[in-house]
Amino acid sequence: MATTTDAPTRPELAVLTACCAPAQAAVADGNAQALADMFKALADPARVKIMAMLLNAEEVCACDISGGIGKSAATASHHLKILKDAGLATSEKRGTWVYYRAVPQRLNALVEALALSQ
Amino acid sequence: MATTTDAPTRPELAVLTACCAPAQAAVADGNAQALADMFKALADPARVKIMAMLLNAEEVCACDISGGIGKSAATASHHLKILKDAGLATSEKRGTWVYYRAVPQRLNALVEALALSQ
DNA sequence: GTATCGGTTCGACGTTCATCAAAACAGAAC
DNA sequence: GTTCTGTTTTGATGAACGTCGAACCGATAC
């Protein structure tokens, strides 16, 4: 076994650095799973494009998303459901159409978890 | 078809908001794929724990990571390779042991891509 | 009422992934 | 040289994922 070098104090770290003993995960199992689930929701090019569309337009009709990502309507609906389940997007039905929005607060949670980079 | 509401100008957006026409992805295919690949590298609880260990300790012996995530050495090596391939970690062999470090600059790229939340 | 259109869900298919046991590899100690 | 010890790679297996066509549900138009 080898001990690690001195751990630098990084008070700005929110989630990823809760404790410091080496040979032990610094995030609890639940936190790691929750973070991984959010990353997984973004771990597909189609969903990255969808989030970019939502963040650009504040509100996007579902009918525009299928063409925006170049996939079938069924596939687009599948990805939108994943983003909704992850809390990264919300939907609202108005008449015939469904409109999607991004949830910036959820993205903020990710930024805070990563806000340790240099 | 329905047009979206006015797109708010968000000059701080680096990657996700390059253009603005609705019904069209705001990120190029290559960018979306690159971002998705980085998110995918973090889309597993074991890898989230590993990154937290690396960010806490500045340098971690590979021998400590297996126990830290509660998986076999082979599995730990597998996850470390994924993090290395994504550019999120580097390794250095000194004598018998291998030491891993985080690459904060790569995490910064993700933060900038997400730095649009509220 | 029926017909049509937008969106979601279901079912199936092929691909990718996480995991571990076992084998292979690389140094260090003898 | 041989024998450990730590790490990576290989192979196999079961689970999860992305994709699309078809079926389904809601709301509008006729």
UniProtKB/TrEMBL annotation, chains A, B:
<keyword id="KW-0805">Transcription regulation</keyword>
<protein>
    <submittedName>
        <fullName>Transcriptional regulator, ArsR family</fullName>
    </submittedName>
</protein>
<dbReference type="InterPro" id="IPR051081">
    <property type="entry name" value="HTH_MetalResp_TranReg"/>
</dbReference>
<keyword id="KW-0804">Transcription</keyword>
<dbReference type="GO" id="GO:0003677">
    <property type="term" value="F:DNA binding"/>
</dbReference>
<keyword id="KW-0238">DNA-binding</keyword>
<feature type="domain" description="HTH arsR-type">
    <location>
        <begin position="27"/>
        <end position="118"/>
    </location>
</feature>
<dbReference type="InterPro" id="IPR018334">
    <property type="entry name" value="ArsR_HTH"/>
</dbReference>
<dbReference type="InterPro" id="IPR001845">
    <property type="entry name" value="HTH_ArsR_DNA-bd_dom"/>
</dbReference>
<dbReference type="GO" id="GO:0003700">
    <property type="term" value="F:DNA-binding transcription factor activity"/>
</dbReference>
<dbReference type="Pfam" id="PF01022">
    <property type="entry name" value="HTH_5"/>
</dbReference>
<dbReference type="InterPro" id="IPR036390">
    <property type="entry name" value="WH_DNA-bd_sf"/>
</dbReference>
<dbReference type="InterPro" id="IPR036388">
    <property type="entry name" value="WH-like_DNA-bd_sf"/>
</dbReference>
<dbReference type="InterPro" id="IPR011991">
    <property type="entry name" value="ArsR-like_HTH"/>
</dbReference>
